[in-house]
Amino acid sequence: MNFLPISRKQIIRPFGILLLSMVAFLLAGLTPESRGQQIPVLKFEAVREPVRIQADQVSYDHKDEAYVAEGKVEIFQGDRKLSADRVTLSGKTNEVEASGNVILVQGEDILRSERIKVDLDTSLGIIVRGTLFLKKQHFYLRGEEIERIGEGTYRIRKGSLTTCDGDWPDWRFTSREIVVTLEDYAAIEGATFEIKNVPVLYFPYLLFPVKAQRQSGFLFPRVTFSNLSGVELNNAFYWAISKNMDATFYLDLA
Questions:
Q1: Residuewise pLDDT in 10s, the chain (254 residues)
Q2: Which residues of 207-238 are buried (b: 16+ CB within 10 A; e: fewer)?
Q3: All structural domains of the chain with their residue ranges
Q4: DSSP string across the chain
């Protein structure tokens, strides 16, 4: 990337034009014409739409060859929005890093983290202490580190996986390492199955489907409490009979 000859630490006010190229790469996904079929961090489709930037200040460090946007940074493009306390683009490494209250939204997919780092050449990236919600699959991926290692594939370290909402999900799998491939399976080594954050079962190795398309199988149990029955474990089996027909069978334990 060729940088314009700007003096070191020159300050550019909000909507700085010189940062537009940075944001175009970060949010739009690299277009097929420029860099081949590459996928953005969350596997969002590439779009060509105007980019709008808001920040308290934008500067360029000539020595480090880096653009820096600081203070209530908000970057908009189409239905995408990235907000952070600080966003940096390195010309030496061609990497983008956002830190401090990072939120990346596209449509109904949401990423929240302390820091993200993306390689613009490969579109691979790392999410540090974050939560990734994928609406289509209705999956929450949480981890100390979530790394995008391939198209639709994520490696989660010291994290969890669940389809339940909230900080205290009805169930979740936790592990030191989880490899998730969207529309395929999550491979979990040393998986602990938790109900309401309480460990219940341990699996040395587990494959768990991560698919939006419905399929037959046991549904995860729900735990309920009542004065009449006490603790109840609600079990169910879902049968996808055909495209327009299904059935669910229940067996509750109290």
A1: 322 333 333 333 333 333 433 444 343 333 333 333 333 334 334 445 676 778 999 888 888 888 889 999 988 877 878 899 999 888 888 788 999 999 988 888 899 999 998 887 777 889 999 999 988 888 899 999 999 888 889 999 999 999 888 888 888 999 999 999 988 889 999 999 998 889 988 999 988 887 765 555 556 566 666 666 666 666 666 555 555 666 666 655 55
A2: ebebeeeeeeeeebbeeeeeeeeeeeebeeee
A3: 214-254
A4: -PPP---TTEEE-SS-GGGHHHHHHHHH---HHHHSS---TT-PPP-----EEE-SEEEEETTTTEEEEEEEEEEEETTEEEEEEEEEEETTTTEEEEEEEEEEEETTEEEEEEEEEEETTT--EEEEEEEEEETTTTEEEEEEEEEEEETTEEEEEEEEEES--SSS-SEEEEEEEEEEETTEEEEEEEEEEEETTEEEEEEEEEEEEE-SS---EEEEEEEEEETTTEEEEEEEEEEEEETTEEEEEEEEE-
pTM of this prediction exceeds 0.70:
no
The whole-angstrom separation of Cα 165 and Cα 155 is 21
Neighbours of 142 (CB within 10 A): 24
**Residue 124 pLDDT:** 82
- Parallel, antiparallel, or unpaired for β 245-253 and 230-242? antiparallel
Which residue type does 180 have?
V
